TrEMBL record, chains A, B, C, D, E, F, G, H:
One of its GO terms (molecular function) is hydrolase activity. Residues 119-251 form the PurE domain. It comes from Paenibacillus apii. It holds the Pfam family AIRC. PANTHER family: PHOSPHORIBOSYLAMINOIMIDAZOLE CARBOXYLASE-RELATED, SLL1489 PROTEIN. One of its GO terms (biological process) is 'de novo' IMP biosynthetic process. This is Nickel pincer cofactor biosynthesis protein LarB. SUPFAM superfamilies: N5-CAIR mutase (phosphoribosylaminoimidazole carboxylase, PurE). InterPro entries: P2CMN_synthase_LarB (IPR039476), PurE_dom (IPR000031).
Amino acid sequence: MDNEALRKLLTSVQNGELKVEEALEDLKELPFKDLGFALIDNHREVRTGVPEVIYCAGKTVEQVRQIIEYMLTRDNNILGTRASAEMYEAVKAICPEAEYNPIGRTITVRRRPVELTDSYIAIVSAGTSDLPVVEEAVETALILGNRVEKITDVGVAGIHRLFDKLGVIREAKVVVVVAGMEGALASVLGGLTDKPVIAVPTSIGYGANFGGLSALLSMLNSCASGVSVVNIDNGYGGAYCASMINKLASS
Amino acid sequence: MDNEALRKLLTSVQNGELKVEEALEDLKELPFKDLGFALIDNHREVRTGVPEVIYCAGKTVEQVRQIIEYMLTRDNNILGTRASAEMYEAVKAICPEAEYNPIGRTITVRRRPVELTDSYIAIVSAGTSDLPVVEEAVETALILGNRVEKITDVGVAGIHRLFDKLGVIREAKVVVVVAGMEGALASVLGGLTDKPVIAVPTSIGYGANFGGLSALLSMLNSCASGVSVVNIDNGYGGAYCASMINKLASS
Amino acid sequence: MDNEALRKLLTSVQNGELKVEEALEDLKELPFKDLGFALIDNHREVRTGVPEVIYCAGKTVEQVRQIIEYMLTRDNNILGTRASAEMYEAVKAICPEAEYNPIGRTITVRRRPVELTDSYIAIVSAGTSDLPVVEEAVETALILGNRVEKITDVGVAGIHRLFDKLGVIREAKVVVVVAGMEGALASVLGGLTDKPVIAVPTSIGYGANFGGLSALLSMLNSCASGVSVVNIDNGYGGAYCASMINKLASS
Amino acid sequence: MDNEALRKLLTSVQNGELKVEEALEDLKELPFKDLGFALIDNHREVRTGVPEVIYCAGKTVEQVRQIIEYMLTRDNNILGTRASAEMYEAVKAICPEAEYNPIGRTITVRRRPVELTDSYIAIVSAGTSDLPVVEEAVETALILGNRVEKITDVGVAGIHRLFDKLGVIREAKVVVVVAGMEGALASVLGGLTDKPVIAVPTSIGYGANFGGLSALLSMLNSCASGVSVVNIDNGYGGAYCASMINKLASS
Amino acid sequence: MDNEALRKLLTSVQNGELKVEEALEDLKELPFKDLGFALIDNHREVRTGVPEVIYCAGKTVEQVRQIIEYMLTRDNNILGTRASAEMYEAVKAICPEAEYNPIGRTITVRRRPVELTDSYIAIVSAGTSDLPVVEEAVETALILGNRVEKITDVGVAGIHRLFDKLGVIREAKVVVVVAGMEGALASVLGGLTDKPVIAVPTSIGYGANFGGLSALLSMLNSCASGVSVVNIDNGYGGAYCASMINKLASS
Amino acid sequence: MDNEALRKLLTSVQNGELKVEEALEDLKELPFKDLGFALIDNHREVRTGVPEVIYCAGKTVEQVRQIIEYMLTRDNNILGTRASAEMYEAVKAICPEAEYNPIGRTITVRRRPVELTDSYIAIVSAGTSDLPVVEEAVETALILGNRVEKITDVGVAGIHRLFDKLGVIREAKVVVVVAGMEGALASVLGGLTDKPVIAVPTSIGYGANFGGLSALLSMLNSCASGVSVVNIDNGYGGAYCASMINKLASS
Amino acid sequence: MDNEALRKLLTSVQNGELKVEEALEDLKELPFKDLGFALIDNHREVRTGVPEVIYCAGKTVEQVRQIIEYMLTRDNNILGTRASAEMYEAVKAICPEAEYNPIGRTITVRRRPVELTDSYIAIVSAGTSDLPVVEEAVETALILGNRVEKITDVGVAGIHRLFDKLGVIREAKVVVVVAGMEGALASVLGGLTDKPVIAVPTSIGYGANFGGLSALLSMLNSCASGVSVVNIDNGYGGAYCASMINKLASS
Amino acid sequence: MDNEALRKLLTSVQNGELKVEEALEDLKELPFKDLGFALIDNHREVRTGVPEVIYCAGKTVEQVRQIIEYMLTRDNNILGTRASAEMYEAVKAICPEAEYNPIGRTITVRRRPVELTDSYIAIVSAGTSDLPVVEEAVETALILGNRVEKITDVGVAGIHRLFDKLGVIREAKVVVVVAGMEGALASVLGGLTDKPVIAVPTSIGYGANFGGLSALLSMLNSCASGVSVVNIDNGYGGAYCASMINKLASS
């Protein structure tokens, strides 16, 4: 195909249909177009409902406001993660339809309708303290266009609660497991489902938890097959991976 | 459905079609059947081409031989990982069709035909030293029934080699990236494809590589979305995750 | 016994004493009942004096208040750990008999009388800075129904102080050792008593203490037999283990 | 009592029944006797069936032989841990009744009959690779006089196998959990039993297992109460703690 | 030469041109002069435009003010790093021409003209969050007399943006790469240029970033040759190294 | 000697010079006296000028005030380390002669005259940021009765400054080296003096300093003989060791 | 310039001087040529004396032999690092002029003359145990075309030996410092020269050296400006960086 | 004094008693002499009984033989540490009076008589596995001219054994504590003696011992004052520090 486009261009030059300078302009963008790099970025902007994402942590309120103000000019949906309430106030002033999830610390703007998949992602968590990460994952999955089932507080210390929910978990196309402390839920669920499990370790815990290291190592060493892991507390990343898989499964 | 089976059983007891003791026998297996635990294990044995897996490291040659001898009685396909050449010799003596991949250190036995998916998994690696992990991943993906495209030696230090192969990588349904040292290939590929990337850090390297820790941390901290990570040198695990996704995508 | 219950149920169905739908209802809960999962939770609520526990850290004052308000409806005793004074104020407003241990940061509510064991747990600590962990352990042991002997400030740097208290320590059924810095007290006491020692490393110290890592590693490497370890600063966990043992010993 | 012994001694001196030099001899041992230090060691030798223990790793064959030769003169039972087959051969030459467990790498000599408790210790493990640690724990528990139930290969990746064995586990007085990789079994079992759980992390695994660190951190961060932890691969230590508890519970 | 100076001095003494006491005074400074230690310090003060540097973190506002006040008496250029806005206010009061870079947190005073090199340093960064480190590097490079090209936001997740800037990067004499998270940019650039790359890992990121450790290890393990690394967040250090190289290349 | 005291006591009993009950009282204290445990504590109180020490960090202002109030009743000298200005105010209110070193964060009370040794301790530091640790060491050494020479800002980056001070350093009986960052000063000084060097790593630095770990490891791996190390930032501990040595050397 | 080439090509097509298919062939390689990716690789082969490099560790003797056999067909110089004596024997059989440095474990083949720079690299090391890394650095620097001055055994524990060599070190354009243990030599030399210092930490040492971590952290935290660091034991990498700088300085 | 020497030299030049070239020769060595660097080295050779030390690990048998052969020409005493039996055989061939300590792995050659101090160093160890480090320390202390008391197997798990030896320990001028596992012995002894304690952590242990890290951190965090620490397994270093102190105390 690329070859075809090039052949056509060269033939046009040969035919005199295209001037050298015009062809030159076209070719100057060639390296990226050819390699398809720009495709990703371009089609982000054209495909309905794919949001632009801003990681708000470490930015000032003013910086967040300005970036989102610029994004709004492109009329896309927007997802801001790790956003403070103060940031939300500043965004709301310029975009009244912006919504805030105070637990998940996300700002969402829906300028275009988001159609949800029929299949769904199960987002499962061990304890109530993992909720901020769960909510970040849920908001991400939703704005990326996925149906979501949220199952919370099914840690392995009371494993019967997990079995109660096993049906709904096993019907999902992909499972996101959010767990801190010893992160055993990922292994247990990995053994109970035949769907991909994306494990999100959280920094919940204390002492020898070492900021999420214990859950991270647990999940990487899962004795169950089919478990892969994203960064500590990275609810966004877990949901993004799950969304990719769910989209593949439902297409 | 479970309820249906139970109602039917109880009605049979009520009707006198089933004796109490017979019903009791059936119900004794209920907890697992009901919860579907056993399904996974059972359907492993019935579904054509799904292999039984044995992790050979830390076992004696004799133990490996005995386990595989037992597996052979069930007439399933078999995948042995981290197997020595000596182990293979012992297995070959009892199963002449067993095959050995000396680089990937896998033993494979194909008793039932494995039908490959149309879609494929791209298994991409940075350097030639990563080959053992790559080969383990390839053998795993194949025996699980996936078509595989193997692209090796496209590390980021010579990034033009990667671009040469970008077409075939981007046509895959899921990408397995195998890389040691700084593991940058996962991030670069994560930014160049819109498919899920399963990153397998390897222990290749020296000094501050710390047995694969540098690649592991790199991959977990990938600035590209859509990258999830399995354990260091875990080619089997990476391919298993990828197979789950590829199967979802091709079903 | 389980079999007995099932046989009885089936016979009732056979006899027509129980309708199929009624039996179905009973059986739906079977997997958990059968396995005994729910027993733990259920008997928590029925056994007098066994408290419900809430880990308050990372929760808002309002969340703690609501959870405890709900617990109060079940008329159980309550233990809140890692609770701030502000949390206590909010709880006291809805439950005047709630008590606060400002050093151990525990809230306790005693709705049912707690009968203490005859035998006791010795809770021994190295320095005055370990007191918060000690007090959390003491409050936990007490509300779980154990007699407690608290021995503080007997660190190994002044080992004669420890010998002064050796009599009372050796009469305990189980010893909880709370120590930070180098945590040597666990090893020394492990060699001086023939009772189980539960070691609680604390994050007390500075520099190469690394948040309790030094005491944790020390205790895990104890040259004395009979020492097991819980998480850093986990006074609650240490007392919980000790209570289990003390109850076994006194039953 | 100590005071009584002293008063009696002094009265004997006063009465002339005891010479000053004789009393001096008695008093010279006073500091230890008084403090009870020596009790432990002395009663080891007098109480039937309490073994002397030798940690063989890092010693030469000759050193092990000499130490055991000396121990044999005291006619006690003996437990040698981390012993090579070569060490066993050397010991057998001087003590034909010595036995060797080649998986657990233990040498045991039973010179006095060991009476087992009625109650038992459940020693539960996740995978077959954990067997060396399991066997060390079993041999230790047995020679210390405990009845043992060994349950192997019930890792959480196939959790239904665990439930099959739950009955026998829950009847134990204390549970030793031996698990490598992510060590999730300790948390799961901690939630399924109301007995003390002694967790023994193993170095089984690879990659980010970091020599047992992943299982160790998992177990220390267990979300289930009642779990305490001993050193990595320390089957002896885990069984020793469990024996102390079992003896308390059965006395 | 040193020998020459000494011979001359001794000859002067021999000739009576120099008194013993005068020669003694000269010789007293000999050890340092001879070894050239003092040269560095002395020529700092005499060479135009070489700044004096003060690391402001951990100092009080008053201390910074006093040190800079003293430096001003020597009429040199000054660079203050890790300076707060409050510190700048205090300095401005005594030196109105002082300038402040609020992002890079640098104070600069230019008392002597700084002539920039013809060749330049390329300072390249992955994300906008790395800007504080970038700005510190830029200010350092400028006051040390280097021309600088700043290229920001060219992280590997969107690698086409990097290629857009490749021309200007490759024309530099030395490249400073500032990157957090997985730090892959250093390896990618190392493979795309034949100039020395100084990599500055940043603490940007979260979770398993561990305060910059992931980027640091990545960069140290770079598969591209020609990459060397300075401390985490050390923009000053990276620019200092680059300046040394750029000066060598342009002399 | 102990034997002598015992023989005398027993003889007195035999002679009827001492009653049994009186002898019993004496013997009750025997274990400690005999072993000499209490000697240390007792002679602290009797030897002039030996201070009582209180580690103030982690204590409340009120706790510090009360402890020092109690100490004052024994009329000893007092050293409080890691004390805040607020703590000092509270102490000054009850003890007007108390002094505060705001950099070293020490409170000192001199109730008895402290006679300084003729020989001295050299306390040498690399950078001005190490001053808090230096000052803690100086105050400790002084109140323990040592003459002190303080040499600051002689880091190895400008090694000629160190040589300028080498004379005074080499005349000391023992050298305390306080250094952060890479802690190279300890090795350099270890090679330049034949006196014991006590190295105190500080947490000064940033990035891969990891809270003092870099300096700590440096000092432990010193290529110079005669260097031993205390905990990070432990100026008190370094000076205490040095004082012991200086006292031995000057006695 | 790129534009010029393109314009010329298009004009040739327009003029009919170049057929469409021929132009297509040229354009197919455009993306890489344009971006200059391939330049590096191509000019390696054309520029006299630039070696091809093979990292031999982890490869079999046969693999090394084959790779070098292939390289020989291109008539380039060759550098093999981390090569065993056995590998060298295999290479020598097919290339008699191959040379082996048994300490540095390098194989070198010089097919084209290597012209050395006038300016030189100083390669300085602390102890004799660092020699393998030094020799690897020396061989690398030489075959890359640099004059080298090797200064060994000038560790900071005997700093006068370093001063003896300071003249030759300071005349270099760039200094490579190879040091293990505490790696202080890098900081000391960084303060004594105004040239770039490339620090190579080595794994020489024991105990808390942790495989080179102590020297690595030391060097990263160097208090001297102008020091950058490569991976542990990476003599090749250090020399490569130095060569780049030396070439810039001598061009 | 230095000034005196210089004045004298200059006066001799002035007087014509010394030629310029002769004075130049003298002055060329001035920098080191002046600074006193060389003094250490020189007086090593002149002071009777001070050994030359060679660290044999990582050297070949031939290298060790050659180095010692050279040392023998200077007629000094020699201490070789970490020496294999094979190395000893090679040394013995050229120096029949060489002695070997197979446990401590030391070679010692006594060419000059070593006079021992009256006061002694106590070298105390926890377990028999620490003996290699103890023996290295003992051999070092002896050849450096110290009287030594060796007390082994007094670990804190059986603390009464330690008290038995307390008298001899407390009479020492300085105590070297060698301990692995949790290293608690250093803290316990630190509290029982008023002499400096040099703690040598050993790598004895397993699991979470992490190669001696647990004992190292324990000792650094010792709650007893007066404890300083050397590198893991560094018996030589511990004895060297102790010798410096003992010499100061006995001079």
